[in-house]
Amino acid sequence: MDSDFGVPRELSHLQKLRSQYQPELPPCLQGKSVRVEFSDATASTDPSGAHTISRSFPHTYGQPLAHFLRASAKVPDAQIISEHPAVRVGVVFCGRQSPGGHNVIWGLHNALKTHNTSSTLLGFLGGSEGLFAQKTLEITDEILATYKNQGGYDLLGRTKDQIRTTEQVTAALSTCKALKLDSLVIIGGVTSNTDAAQLAETFAEAKCPTKVVGVPVTLNGDLKNQFVEANVGFDTICKVNSQLISNVCTDALSAEKYYYFIRLMGRKASHVALECTLQSHPNMVILGEEVAAEKLTLFDLTKQLCDAVQTRAEQDKYHGVILLPEGLIESIPEVYALLQEIHGLLREGHSVDNISSKLSPWASALFEFLPLFIRKQLLLHPESDDSAQLSQIETEKLLAHLVEEEMNKRLKEGTYKGKKFNAICHFFGYQARGSLPSKFDCDYAYVLGHIAYHVLAAGLNGYLATVTNLKNPLNKWRCGAAPITAMMTVKRYGSGPGGAFSGKPAVHPATVDLKGKSYELLTQNAAKFLLEDIYRNPGPLQFDGPGADAKAVTLCVEDQDYMGRIKELEVYLDKVRTIVKPGCSQDVLKAALSAMAAVTNILSMVSSPANSGV
Amino acid sequence: MDSDFGVPRELSHLQKLRSQYQPELPPCLQGKSVRVEFSDATASTDPSGAHTISRSFPHTYGQPLAHFLRASAKVPDAQIISEHPAVRVGVVFCGRQSPGGHNVIWGLHNALKTHNTSSTLLGFLGGSEGLFAQKTLEITDEILATYKNQGGYDLLGRTKDQIRTTEQVTAALSTCKALKLDSLVIIGGVTSNTDAAQLAETFAEAKCPTKVVGVPVTLNGDLKNQFVEANVGFDTICKVNSQLISNVCTDALSAEKYYYFIRLMGRKASHVALECTLQSHPNMVILGEEVAAEKLTLFDLTKQLCDAVQTRAEQDKYHGVILLPEGLIESIPEVYALLQEIHGLLREGHSVDNISSKLSPWASALFEFLPLFIRKQLLLHPESDDSAQLSQIETEKLLAHLVEEEMNKRLKEGTYKGKKFNAICHFFGYQARGSLPSKFDCDYAYVLGHIAYHVLAAGLNGYLATVTNLKNPLNKWRCGAAPITAMMTVKRYGSGPGGAFSGKPAVHPATVDLKGKSYELLTQNAAKFLLEDIYRNPGPLQFDGPGADAKAVTLCVEDQDYMGRIKELEVYLDKVRTIVKPGCSQDVLKAALSAMAAVTNILSMVSSPANSGV
User: Nearest CA to CA, how far is B539 from chain A (Å)?
Assistant: First the structure.
């Protein structure tokens, strides 16, 4: 089967034309030389975890941010990289496929060959399994021809998504040594990039010269932090899902007899569900983060949904569309606790058949209350990251079932007088994941591929390639790289003094920020969405003409650009230095001291652990 | 709720631009005057049923075909319609919503107002229920503004899809009389157009002046016959489904661990499944028509699928994509017989709970063999057309379940040595049905709307608006109308001489022609599709640039244009008449007689009932 990888294939008319699309590069990456500027050393966003992280990553913690600038940029301390020896680079797909992945490889290949035609790019076949087994395919322009701007991961395939056990890390190390790789590029999400950081540390410790570079590619959109604004694939997934959700909304409004419960692939965090809601305006969305914050039980959720159905029925509306994130089930407190018990028993080796008899009384009561199909799904073995098999647990069906029971009860009791409640359930994910990537994802992935090369050229290890200011046109994009360790946090489990136990440092999935602008936009419109059916149809993904350049609503609203602001701050600091240099008047110096004392006071207060909210 | 119909709404950027798209008209419909040419009287395609049909439709059977031509066309016997008194027209959506429906109304409105600004178009609210209850909305340009080129039926809504019982027909008659309608336009599929024909006959009998016109709009694509090449909505549905199927194919190839079983909405006939297969090249498709023709049992189908899985496993392939038509279950002989028994018992008033005990021994055995979820679904009450609730019966899950059991059995027995079989099931339909219509469907529907007006202007009753030569560019399209009774057939049930019993004449859903060119194209490629993973991704529906003008593969391959050939034949007959007119030589006359004798001989033979194959 391996012989099937990278083979040219028949493309449809549209695919052919897409394969001829050439993404541009931001000005800073054009030309043969690139300037790298380093900021101060990075700290972790989790001050209380900083010590743990620095102990776990002695070689790779505390490295500076890197910014890539035009060779002509006038920055005094920047280093111009103009020598480009031939290098050998390996690249591997890790984790769930995400539209745009192929373009990272194309961008990387293009950057390698532009700077030295003798450089070599090796793709590992079948994901991390190929990395361990040293199965490679040399990437060439011919091989890329029918994969440029195309969806899926089928150029190289993927299998398991972790590089974590000692055997796995050792195998990866052997491969990099055997193949004499100067760099290993890991394409993936939070888990894979945590692994990348660990690999970088191990390689540094073992004095292996291979530099590890991560690239943020995950449809979940949950590899998000001050350095990373968006992930490759998220834009496409949200556009394709929004197209389908809108179609279902139109359908609901035409038939006027069904409630559609749609669960959206994207793991536990609700980024995909939030973005799709803002694009297509369904009647309701239940965000896992809201459920967790308000500790809503299954009973609360059912009641909330039934009340909504009833309010709409009073306006003679018997249809609606409700979105759920894939992993909602893990955000519901009592179900999460039940899952923890089940997983504990599974780990102890109990067979699935007698787990229900081993549960604690309350867990057993909840378990018996649930319909049979959900019980079976909750008993599935947990995934490698200890989460439940979220794609397999049909929370949409569970909620639809509970709402139907409750509405029938209300109907019987006479508290509800409308028509019978009818639900149709969907899980959208597989049908979006393999899509042709949007123009945004094609461009973003291609640029990240280029950056991955420059990270290597700058000799950096354990970094993630980053692009910020993404909401603006491509020629305004800022390219850089950040140490992955700076994105890590340490989770604490248990409670009470001394009883707390710290997890391993890791990049954790970002959750939807309930104080953020995107969520605010949702809450402002929630009542209108619920009652007024102001469905919006962004239409199918377009590559030409209107809509082709649309960007994610959350990306545009959130206005992150942390990296840009860091640079802006540095300009201010430099200005102060220039104005207040030795020789300036006593008054200027006094003013500067008093002003800076005030600034540092405020900042110390704001950034004390009590305010960190981690 | 009625107050929500026709309200302007917020459109997305792409929707707005689509709402400004103006379909063109074929040359014959441009200008203020249109010429109508009538062919000979039509017969039914079902010679043995002709008598029954003519008896049931004494007023509307045997009417001629109508062709609409440019006013300047030189056709001797054609009638120019240049007077256009103000008329009142009603229009109603019947049955499942289908993308493009709104454009029929727009085209009709535009034609009415172009020919007389005093004409009125009334839309019935909530489908046939609105027709019975005289609930109308006057269609204006303002109301249409945000519905032009948009999906769904939400401008007017729809409810039940039949106009059949005496009460329903009487209510429709009263409405048409009360509202003084000159014409009633029915937008729908096979069932609705059968109802339209019945209504036309009843109106003629009752001397009601309202002319009934049908328009072929159904995503199933099964209102197909010598007069009708395609249905509005089919093109869009197949494109959206093919996009999703292709994405799933890419996904299968990237993850390499799942078999996807995808059931496609489209009722019992397999047109949607066939078209999507030709667009996206999945590994397998099971057509209901093949299953029925070869009398394949559930056991046969399972074996066929397992053998395919095993052959692929021998090539180290553990993924695949398999398509099924929505109503496959009714094509499997033993399940169909079981359904007939169940429906019979339901009609006799037996409660769902004790039906299984009333089944005949063999039916009971099959029933008990089936998994619980399917049993529940088979017990659902049949639909108004006596078919099972096909959308609710998850045949994809049944087959995936049976294949999994059989593969596990083979694994145990050692006859299969590959990896464990894993399936993921989908039902695609709702997420495509509400889509923005493709350019083809926008154009086709708009032109049909115009034709519906000209049918009325020509004073015709019981006709279906038709466009042929659709595979060619719009300026080559041929516009016409055909009596719906000419599309009817009479089904015979039971067997043995004298034991047969005839059904009512009706337009029956066309099945996929197993001798046709589209099916031939499939069989030629089936082996390659199965083994070589030559997945093809037509991409998302495009409105601009490459792909925007793509047409359905089956439409282009089938090369129907029956209406065009009828006209061509008439030209030949006229030529013979011209050459052999009184005064020609004895030799020419002799040659003509001998040649025509041969021709009529051949034709009599070919068209004898023994060859009709009905």
Answer: 6
Q: Name the domain boundary from A522, A540, A557.
A: A557
| The pLDDT of residue A252 is above 60 | yes
For B143, the domain range is 13-233+437-491
Is the predicted pLDDT of residue A611 greater than 90, yes or no?
no
State residue A425's pLDDT score.
95
Contact status of A211 with chain B (Cβ, < 8 Å):
no
Residue A119 located in a structural domain = yes
- Contact between chains at A433 and B247 (C-beta distance less than 8 A): yes
Query: Best mutation site among A9, A247, A257, A265 for testing chain B: the one with the most B CBs within 10 Å?
Result: A247
Per-residue model confidence (pLDDT) at position B449: 98
A24 shares its domain with A36: yes
Residue A582 domain-assigned (yes or no): yes
On chain B, the residues whose CB falls within 8 A of the CB of A317 are 1
A223 and A250 in a common domain: no
Higher pLDDT, A399 or B5: A399
Number of domains in chain A: 3
| Rounded CA separation B150/B8 (Å) | 12
Q: Which residues of chain A from 92 to 131 reach within 8 Å of chain B, CB to CB?
A: 97, 126
Q: Are residues B335 and B305 in the same domain?
A: yes
H or E stretch including B526?
Answer: helix B517-532
Same structural domain for residues A249 and A224? Answer: no
Q: Is some CB atom of chain A closer than 8 A to the CB atom of B221?
A: no
Do residues B194 and B308 both lie within one domain?
A: no
The pLDDT assigned to A614 comes to: 37
How do residues A22-64 score in pLDDT, each as one tens digit? 999 999 999 888 899 998 788 777 778 889 999 999 999 999 9
Residue B4, in any domain of the structure: no
Give residue-wise pLDDT tens across range B21-39.
999 999 999 988 889 999 8
Determine whether the interchain pair B255/A545 forms a contact, defined as Cβ–Cβ distance below 8 Å: no
Task: Give the nearest chain B residue to A437 (CA atoms).
Answer: B539
Which is higher by pLDDT, B503 or A303? Answer: A303
The torsion region of residue B445 among left (phi > 0), alpha (psi -120 to 50) and beta comes to alpha
Query: How high does pLDDT run on average in chain A?
Result: 91
* Location of structure tokens 């405020």: A602
- Percent of chain B's residues with pLDDT above 90: 73
Q: Which long-range contacts (CB under 8 A, 24 or more apart) does B167-171 make?
A: B168/B128, B168/B132, B169/B198, B169/B199, B169/B202, B171/B131, B171/B132, B171/B133
Q: Quote the minimal CA–CA distance from B124 to chain A in Å.
A: 13
Angle at B124 between CA B122 and CA B125, to 5 degrees: 130
Residues A34 and A135 in one domain: yes
Helix ranges (DSSP H) in B79-158: 101-115, 128-133, 141-144
Q: Are residues B266 and B363 in the same domain?
A: yes
Query: For A248, which of B10, B434, B533 is closest by C-beta distance?
Result: B434
Q: What is the CATH number of the domain that holds B97?
A: 3.40.50.450
Nearest to A97 among B97, B251, B428 (CB): B251
State mean pLDDT over B318-338.
Answer: 95
Does some domain include residue B507? Answer: no
**Among the partner residues A97, A544, A547, nearest to B254 by beta-carbon distance:** A97
Q: Are B562 and B226 within 8 A, CB to CB? A: yes
Q: Give yes or no for residue A229 having a pLDDT over 50.
A: yes
Angle at B538 between CA B533 and CA B539, to 5 degrees: 115
A3 interfacial to chain B (CB closer than 8 Å) = no
Both A102 and A227 in one domain: the answer is yes
Closest residue in A to B537 (Cα–Cα):
A12
Q: Residues B34, B72: contact at Cβ < 8 Å?
A: no
Tell me which residues of chain B, numbers 297 to 326, contact chain A at a CB-CB cutoff of 8 Å: 315-317
Which pLDDT score, from 0 to 100, does residue A384 have? 74
C-alpha span between A71 and A34 (Å, rounded): 5
pTM tops 0.95, yes or no? no
Mean pLDDT score, A382-404? 91
Predicted confidence (pLDDT) per residue in A554-594, tens digit: 999 887 767 777 778 888 888 888 888 888 888 888 888 88
